[in-house]
Amino acid sequence: MNPAQVERQVLGWLEVLVVGEGLCPFAARPLGAGRVRISVCEANDVDGIYRHVLGELQRLLNTPAQELETTVVAVPEGLESFDEYLDMLAAVEDALVQLQLEGVFQVASFHPHYVFEGTSDDDVGNYTNRSPYPLFHLLREASLSAALEAFPEPEKIPERNQARMHELGREGIAQLLRRASSVQD
Question: Residue 57 is part of which domain span?
Answer without folding.
Answer: 3-181
